[in-house]
């Protein structure tokens, strides 16, 4: 599984404006629905919120992977955003979160959904990769960095 | 009738056995009727007492004060051990304000009411101070009885408040009793004195908490059963020493327990269970004793005053003061109203009321009887409405139900790894996946699945369904990733 299969260059935002958790979820949903016009923004916010209610998807080190399941979807869709000043996402380590990878999966595809989540979280374990994304300024550069890191053996 | 040994001891143990057994057996029924179990224990005590069928003449206020204090130390220590740090983050500020300014405010308003009902000023204020602290255990016992879970912030605020507000009530009671005895006028020195007590108590508590952490993680005792002996010693020291040095022992015990409870140490789950049992034993004994101490015919004499002050406390003093205190924290109106309404009184006021009696302060007996009356009325009226009101105001938490079976590691050594319980919600990514499809990191592994009353072995083809409780073994460094995949961790 390659991340480039479900993260399109249009679904990237290099400078998130949101200052709190709920606003981040709204902004990420807006980006997702812009890249995939058939998806309703409100529904996306709803499924992401439902998952956050169980416990924050902020896995620490400034990374969060908000995700959810959307009935009617046929394949995985994703969006990526960078917050320059950081947002309190109730992350497990209590630190502010800068990198947001939103992932929405079809309803009956738990296996694929889990595989993608594990893949993304392992990718962002690399501190040099995280730093390079924070250094990049344009959405195109960030997308290229992710694709490149994902392609490494 | 003078009894000789061993007959006297045999009688004592028989009576205790009947009373304690009855308390334990009837507690479930009480919870179902919305009555705090504590009230049931008191009632059994009254039945066993001098005017009840038991006919036990017990009038030892000194013994009551001492045993009550020990019981409170045990209860506060257990409460502290079970208070997670995350609760502190959510509720510490409002709870701290309620436990200090709130207690003073409630004491003042109730004191004014008591004065209007005929008490002389100093006695009236003393009465207000005595009944000013709340007991969350009373609220939680009622909620547990009706199978409800309270929304997080409200529950945490109530619980922390009741852990923190006894010191202030104790300080005010001691100071006002002193003023009543010496005849000196009241002045602001009481507040200065209270501040010193709090600071010293908190400092001792932190000290004992960190010392306890260090001790528990370093020391290896010969037998598992000695660990609770050590923690009990710490609890007694954490109360005793600061009290000798102008500090609040109650605050110190609670703080020490919170500090200790938020660290993993060997034999932790075993220790928590022992302290839980000790806290229950303390509750049962304390309330039975208070019931034995009460003389129903004396209570009837103060019924009018008692009912009047109780109603003012429940309908005016507590709700008003709580709403004002919570204003800066922007609690929704219904939440602050709820906190104000369910501030049930527990044993602390009755134990505090023995203090002026012991000091032979004027009017102490009538204060004691009114306090007793207030505690009972207060537990009955707001107490009975708790389940209804919780549902009505929509404060029921949708937290998943606790598993019918639990798995835990018990060890006398510090372990590198833990078994973490999760709940599979429909919204969590694992719902519907087979274990073979679950890409857990490194050494993490699903050890057991509890589905309803059934234990499901964790094999590759096993599917995880919404509603399952899943136990995952993992190392601390892998916990974040496991959380991401599984979703909702259960409280232990």
Please tell me about this protein's structure.
The complex is a heterodimer of chains A (153) and B (492). With 153 residues, chain A is an alpha/beta fold. Chain A has a single domain, classed as Mannitol-specific EII, Chain A (3-Layer(aba) Sandwich), CATH 3.40.930. Chain A is built from five helices and six strands. In chain A, a hairpin with a 2-residue loop joins β2 and β3. The longest helix of chain A is centred in the first third of the chain and has 15 residues, at 21-35. Chain A is globular, with a radius of gyration of 14 Å. The mean pLDDT of chain A is 92. Chain B is mostly helical and 492 residues long. Chain B is 64% helix and 5% strand. Classes of the chains: A alpha/beta (153), B mainly alpha (492). Chains A and B meet through α2, β4 and α3 of A and α18 and β5 of B. Chain B: It holds the Pfam family TrkA_C. Chain B: This is Sodium:proton exchanger. Chain B: Keywords: Antiport, Cell membrane, Ion transport, Membrane, Potassium, Potassium transport, Transmembrane, Transmembrane helix, Transport. Chain B: The chain crosses the membrane at residues 6-26, 33-57, 63-83, 95-118, 124-143, 188-209, 221-241, 277-296, 302-326, 338-359, 365-389.
């Amino acid at each position: 599984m390659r991340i480039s299969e479900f993260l399109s260059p249009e679904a990237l935002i290099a400078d998130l404006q949101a200052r709190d958790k709920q606003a981040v979820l709204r902004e990420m949903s807006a980006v997702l629905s812009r890249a995939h016009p058939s998806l309703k923004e409100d529904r996306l916010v709803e499924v992401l919120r439902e998952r956050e209610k169980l416990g924050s998807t902020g896995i620490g080190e400034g990374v969060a992977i908000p995700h959810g399941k959307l009935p009617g979807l046929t394949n995985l869709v994703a969006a990526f955003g960078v917050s320059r000043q950081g947002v309190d996402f109730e992350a497990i380590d209590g630190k502010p979160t800068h990198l947001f990878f939103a992932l929405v999966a079809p309803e009956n595809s738990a296996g694929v959904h889990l595989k993608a989540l594990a893949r993304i979280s392992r990718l962002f374990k690399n501190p040099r990769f995280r730093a390079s994304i924070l250094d990049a300024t344009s959405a195109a550069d960030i997308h290229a960095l992710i694709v490149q890191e994902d392609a490494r053996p | 009738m003078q009894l000789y040994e061993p007959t006297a001891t045999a009688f004592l143990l028989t009576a205790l056995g009947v009373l304690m057994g009855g308390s334990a057996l009837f507690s479930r029924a009480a919870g179902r009727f919305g009555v705090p179990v504590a009230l049931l224990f008191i009632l059994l005590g009254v039945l066993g007492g001098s005017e009840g069928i038991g006919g036990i003449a017990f009038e030892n206020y000194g013994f009551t004060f001492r045993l009550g204090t020990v019981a409170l130390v045990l209860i506060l220590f257990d409460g502290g051990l079970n208070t997670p740090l995350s609760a502190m983050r959510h509720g510490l500020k409002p709870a701290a304000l309620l436990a200090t300014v709130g207690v003073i405010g409630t004491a003042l308003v109730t004191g004014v009411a008591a004065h209007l009902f005929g008490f002389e000023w100093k006695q009236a204020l003393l009465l207000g101070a005595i009944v000013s602290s709340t007991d969350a255990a009373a609220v939680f016992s009622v909620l547990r009885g009706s199978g409800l879970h309270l929304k997080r912030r409200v529950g945490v605020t109530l619980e922390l408040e009741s852990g923190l507000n006894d010191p202030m009530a104790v300080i005010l009671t001691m100071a006002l009793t002193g003023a009543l005895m010496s005849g000196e006028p009241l002045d602001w020195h009481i507040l200065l004195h209270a501040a010193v007590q709090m600071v010293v108590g908190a400092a001792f508590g932190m000290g004992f908490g960190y010392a306890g952490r260090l001790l528990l993680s370093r020391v290896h005792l010969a037998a598992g059963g000695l660990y609770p002996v050590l923690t009990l010693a710490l609890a007694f020291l954490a109360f005793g020493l600061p009290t000798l040095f102008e500090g609040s022992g109650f605050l110190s015990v609670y703080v020490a327990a919170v500090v200790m409870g938020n660290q993993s140490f060997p034999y932790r789950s075993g220790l928590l269970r022992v302290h839980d049992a000790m806290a229950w034993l303390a509750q049962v004994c304390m309330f039975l004793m208070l019931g034995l101490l009460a003389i129903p015919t004396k209570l009837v004499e103060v019924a009018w005053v008692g009912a009047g002050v109780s109603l003012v406390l429940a309908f005016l003093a507590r709700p008003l003061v709580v709403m004002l205190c919570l204003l800066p924290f922007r609690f929704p109106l219904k939440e602050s109203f709820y906190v104000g309404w369910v501030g049930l009184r527990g044993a602390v006021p009755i134990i505090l009321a023995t203090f002026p009696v012991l000091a032979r302060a004027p009017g102490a007996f009538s204060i004691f009887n009114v306090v007793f009356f207030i505690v009972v009325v207060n537990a009955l009226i707001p107490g009975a409405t708790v389940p209804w009101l919780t549902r009505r105001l929509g404060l029921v938490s949708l937290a998943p139900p606790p598993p019918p079976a639990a798995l835990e590691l018990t060890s006398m050594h510090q372990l590198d790894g833990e078994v973490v319980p999760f709940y599979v919600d429909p919204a969590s990514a694992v719902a519907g996946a087979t274990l073979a499809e679950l890409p857990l990191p490194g050494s993490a592994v699903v050890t057991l699945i509890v589905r309803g009353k059934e234990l499901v072995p964790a094999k590759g083809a096993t599917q995880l369904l919404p509603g399952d409780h899943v136990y995952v073994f993992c190392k601390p460094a892998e916990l974040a990733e496991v959380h991401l995949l599984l979703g909702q961790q259960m409280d232990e």
